[in-house]
Amino acid sequence: MLNLVVAGLATVTMAIVVKLRSTSDAGYVALALINIMDIGPILEMLVVAWTQLETSMGAIARMKEFMEDTPEEEQGKVNPPSDWMTEGGITISRLEASYSDIAPSTIKDIDLQIRPGQKIAICGRTGSGKSSLASAVFGLLHISSGHLKIDDVDVTQVSQELLRSKMIALPQDAYFTTGTVRENLSLRRTDTKRSDTEMLDALSRVGLLTKFETLASADGSTWQSPLDIELNPDDMLTKGQTQLFAMARAILSSGSVVLVDEATSGLDHETEATVQTLLREEFKGKTIIAIAHHLQTIVDFDLVVVLDNGKVAEMGKPSELMVTEGSLFGDLLRAAS
What we know:
Blueprint: H1 2-19, H2 26-69, E1 90-98, E2 107-114, E3 119-124, H3 130-137, E4 142-150, E5 153-154, H4 160-165, E6 167-170, E7 179-180, H5 181-185, H6 196-206, H7 209-216, E8 230-231, H8 233-236, H9 239-252, E9 257-261, H10 269-282, E10 287-291, E11 303-308, E12 311-316, H11 318-323, H12 328-336
Parallel strand pairs: 3-10, 3-11, 6-9, 9-10
Antiparallel strand pairs: 1-2, 1-4, 4-5, 7-8, 11-12
């Protein structure tokens, strides 16, 4: 459109020049044509700059609106004892929850008793409510009815920051921040500060210490320790290694409840086996809630909860459900195989 405007301007100019050719100076005409040729890029720069300004101002307006209008999470009415959540027992009774107070319930009438130290697998088809149930345990959903208690304390009655600080999460996509390996291993400010020796030991357990030692000792490197490396996961780590790094972070975190949200999804078989081994060895005695992606990895769990349309379709030991005729878990396991 700008080029058409410039072309129209040039056409009008030349028409005037031809009309007034007896009184027009050739030098001025040449200067006018050169200026017309330059005006196109200038107009383009003006439009781009104006558009960027509008976009930036719109972003600032949305941020301001978000800060002023978005309600904050409730801080909690109960101050639990300092040793709360040292056992990790979870009681869910007739729970209904949604992502907002006006949205329909995504999990409905859930009854579940998880004893301290149990390994629980949650599975089901896509959209069955697996991630929603895990989000409810983390206090991320609006609970409309029922109760969700951890060590006999209702999670809606305590500070959400306190609740999450006492839990360990292994998501499908690990979060990283700009900074060193040390800073990425100790993201949670609520955790006890770990020493460099403990961090190096955690990296060694997951098999990443050698990689960072090689980077730290590379020619021309200015890093004094593997923990001082400026971490760039996109360039330094593969998909499997990012999950192993997240596992090292989880090992260093304090908490008695471990939530694994399809942490082995998309990993190669070797890395997946390593992650599964670490889950069983490093979190022994802790309550593990795993959203299962590969059902073959949960056959040794204490309990399997199969969800369907936000409700518990069946529940029991994996070994029993596998051989039960008409079992939904058995159908999912066979389909995955």
